[in-house]
Design brief:
By secondary structure, the chain is an alpha+beta fold. The chain has four domains: 69 residues, no CATH class; 57 residues, no CATH class; 158 residues, Ribonuclease H-like superfamily/Ribonuclease H (Nucleotidyltransferase, domain 5, 2-Layer Sandwich), CATH 3.30.420.10; 104 residues, no CATH class. Helix 1 crosses helix 3. The termini are far apart.
């Protein structure tokens, strides 16, 4: 009962006034006696609620309170605010129109800046209106800073929504965890990647890594698709991890629609943020002594399987994510490993260097097809396993590349030029002999046995 208090300041004032004139309402007083009682009451001091000093009240004020209390009860003793309160009654209609026009043309400008500028220009008097009153005026006209940024000029309406079935929509996001201390005490970043099913709040896949690159997200997506099949749509934020061409091409090949949330609209990703909040409260804040990603990952997987998936979820009306996800089995389809590899295979045009090497993903690879040196070729690579080497596609065949080993290449044989060592002539072609015949005036095919006796005069 100690918490039973007046609901607002107006009710507190009404209660205070009723306590002053309350005894007079239960007494039968003649007109003269009532006048004497009111006069005596007007000479007494009373401390108002939240007041710092006592004051008296006039007889007319007490008479008005008494009449209101008898006719309307406690409600009649509540103070009535002015009808034009907060409407900028000291502003002219032209000044109000000026403020509205400024806000429409400059929706991101704050109210204090608008007032200071107009006062400095002499369009408004100093302290003519408060910033709170101007904000209230803008809000009533749908011109507060958030609504003014929207093209419609209205506040955005949010509704609770979810996918109609498990597997229809997946969320993916990255959570920044506390740094791990490696062997020498140097901190290492922790980025937790996760994929969440929208309809069931079931965590499809989760893994802690040191980076948040596109290839890391694809690695997690591959594991999720292998186990659960591809979703109908994938809902992501606008980070660089989810804006790459490889992810867009892979999802399109799998028949998965890629959806990005509106920039700077954090509430649109509320389901994923709620998962991160639960993860921090129940798991991450207790992992400060870990030193390896393996130790962190096994704890994450245990938390997901033993606590999160089996706990009642408020958004599911008390059901668990595991029960909702398993209650709606996915329909069988023909998506298999070969289609997954085809979806995650990327191609790029590269020029083979003169030393038969080609660059791919920041690494140099070597081909045994030396005749491709200096030519543009198509290089393919499957992102399912980043450790698999790329290949060159030439004339309908795939020719694997291998890492460059400069030390081993120092002992590999090279092709030799015809001048390096003698060889039997197979074609009658001898330019020096032809030049010598011309100098001797000898016809083609003449015996050259006298060549040794020929001397050129100095």
């Amino acid at each position: 009962m100690d918490a039973f208090q007046p609901k607002d300041q107006a009710e507190s004032i009404a209660l205070f006034r009723s306590q002053i004139i309350g005894p007079l309402t239960v007494r039968e007083l003649s007109r003269g006696e009532l006048t004497e009682e009111l006069a005596a009451l007007s000479r007494k001091l009373f401390r108002t609620p939240r007041g710092h000093s006592a004051r008296t009240y006039s007889v007319p004020t007490l008479e008005r309170w008494l009449h209101k209390y008898k006719t309307e009860g406690l409600e009649g003793l509540k103070p009535k605010p002015r009808k034009d309160r907060g409407r900028g009654r000291h502003l002219t209609e032209e000044q109000k129109a000026l403020l509205v026009d400024v806000r429409r043309e400059h929706p991101s400008t704050s109210v204090p800046v608008i007032l200071e500028t107009l006062q400095d220009d002499g369009m408004l008097e100093s302290d003519a209106v408060s910033a709170t009153t101007v904000r209230r005026m803008f809000r009533e006209r749908g011109l507060d800073r958030i609504a003014a940024r929207n093209a419609t000029g209205r506040n955005k309406v949010r509704l609770r929504w979810q996918a109609d079935r498990p597997g229809a929509l997946w969320h993916a996001d990255v959570c920044h965890g506390g740094a791990l201390k490696l062997g020498e005490g140097q901190p290492a970043n922790v980025r937790i990647h996760a994929i969440l099913d929208d309809a069931s709040r079931y965590i499809i896949a989760i893994e802690a890594m040191h980076q948040e690159r596109e290839v890391d997200m694809l690695k997690l997506l591959v594991r999720a698709v292998r186990r659960h099949g591809p979703p109908d749509a994938l809902y992501l934020d606008n980070g660089s991890t989810y804006r790459g061409q490889a992810l867009a091409l892979a999802t399109a090949r799998m028949g998965c629609v890629l959806i990005h949330a509106r920039p700077y609209d954090a509430p649109a990703r509320g389901k994923m943020e709620r998962v991160w909040r639960t993860l921090r409260e129940q798991c991450l804040q207790f992992t400060g002594s870990l030193t390896t990603l393996h130790d962190l990952n096994v704890r994450l997987w245990a938390w997901v399987d033993e606590r999160y998936h089996k706990a009642a979820h408020g958004g599911l009306l008390g059901k668990t994510p595991e029960s909702v996800y398993t209650s709606c089995p996915r329909c069988a389809d023909d998506f298999d490993e070969s289609k997954l590899r085809a979806a995650l295979t990327i191609h790029a045009r590269r020029r083979v260097r003169r030393d038969s090497t080609v660059a791919m993903d920041g690494q140099d690879w070597e081909t045994d097809l030396g005749f491709l040196a200096g030519k543009l070729v198509t290089v393919g690579r499957c992102l399912i396993d980043p450790d698999d080497p790329p290949w060159i596609e030439h004339e309908g065949r795939q020719h694997p590349l291998h890492p460059v080993d400069p030390a081993a290449n120092a002992h590999r044989p090279r092709s030799v030029c015809c001048l390096d060592q003698p060889h039997d002539a197979r074609v009658p072609f001898d330019p020096p002999r032809t030049t010598l015949d011309r100098a001797l005036g000898r016809s083609h095919g003449t015996d050259d046995s006298a060549d040794d006796d020929f001397e050129v005069e100095p």
